[in-house]
Amino acid sequence: MRRRSFIAASAGLAVIQGTDAIAANQPAPAGDLRGRTRAELPTPALLVDLAAFEANVRTMADHCKKAGCGFRPHAKTHKCPEIARRQINAGALGVCVATVPEAEGMVAAGVRGVLLTSPILEPGKIARMVALAQKGEVMLSLGHARQAELLNDAAGQARVTVDVLIDVDVGDRRTGILPGEPALELARLVARSKHLRLRGIQAYAGHASHVVGFAQRDKVSREAMGRAVATRELFAKAGLNVTILSGGSTGTYNIDSTIRGVTELQVGSYVFMDVDYRRIGGRNEQAVYSDFRPSLTVLTTVVSATHVDRVTVDAGTKALDTTVSWRAEAQGIPGLTYRAGGDEFGILTAEAGAKLPRLGDRLEFIVPHCDPTTNLYDRIYAMRGERVEAVWPLVARRESRS
């Protein structure tokens, strides 16, 4: 039977319709899927559109080069050594990671310039990071004297010097030490430590990155990073090393890169983008943040169409992050609303005038939040047009907190 398809004009998304597509919906055989078409992939599947992804990588690299600011992208977004290598090849200083397993996965893949941005206190995790420091260029962020003491002891036992940044809380109220004198006291402790080397400051203003409206986002971010710059100046007056001031995010990349004293950006989501970032708005009162193109999608299949007011796709909480209040968006098909229907299923309803897809149809969804969505998969299918160009493995997914 001949397949019928239509093209979603707004995004160029091919959707294979009806029961004619069910044969194409059979899982592809195990093994090398390179060269296979989108229709041959088993669903749910995590896809990256290479044209959009590569454009995003170039856009950020070009911006930072023109701004004279370095960037160390956050790999918690993608957990993918291949993406990290492409970012470094484009000019990145290295990558940030959120967990010890992410650091281990990146170093094992040959990625250097790895910065662990999250605090660790467990002796086992500290020992693992010290072991990585023996293999290559690794840095840790510290926000408490106890962390410094434990790390210095472990580094001494391993006979290695570990590079550290002082993690300064500039308003996020999650981790880090308060700016000013408290941060200076901790920096002096690190400088006195025999097996630690002070490199500078980490100051992540996560509370600024998703502020809706550019003018307000600019205000919040400048206030936050101003605390970090002032702390850096305090370090410098005390004769301490402040080569690095690392912070920023995808939402504030074009703000923080203009702040004198910020040396590198911890941008992450720009390679993929998601519904969360699209809603914050861009420069010149743009309603949609469009500096970077959505490149990450989850491919799904309509597996039930029993009811006239809804259909069911095979992507629920195990395939799309649903911890945020905003929802996945069907790419190129307006008028559809997604909600989770359990672990394995998602429910689609249609607004007035919009048509529901049919049994066997395939749809792609722009993800609500890219970081936790990638954590649900062990591979990304890198798509060049309709075909799989590469399959990129992800690291440290299941044991992300171990």
CATH architecture call of the largest domain:
Alpha-Beta Barrel
Q: Any idea what the CATH superfamily of the largest domain is called?
A: Alanine racemase
- Helical region count? 11
The 3D shape can be described as: globular
What is the CATH class designation of the largest domain?
Alpha Beta
Strand content: 15-25%
**End-to-end CA span:** 50 Å
Describe the structure.
The protein is α/β, with parallel strands linked by helices. The chain folds into two domains: 5-50 and 290-393, D-serine dehydratase-like domain (Lyase, Ornithine Decarboxylase, Chain A, domain 1); 53-273, Alpha-Beta Barrel (TIM Barrel). It is 29% helix and 22% strand. The chain is built from eleven helices and 19 strands. The longest helix has 24 residues, at 214-237. The protein is globular, with a radius of gyration of 23 Å. It starts with a strand and ends in a 9-residue tail after the last strand. Mean pLDDT is 91; it is low at 1-30.
Structural key phrases:
single chain, 402 residues, alpha/beta, Lyase, Ornithine Decarboxylase, Chain A, domain 1, TIM Barrel, 2 domains, 8-stranded parallel beta sheet, 11 helices, 19 strands, 29% helix, disordered N terminus
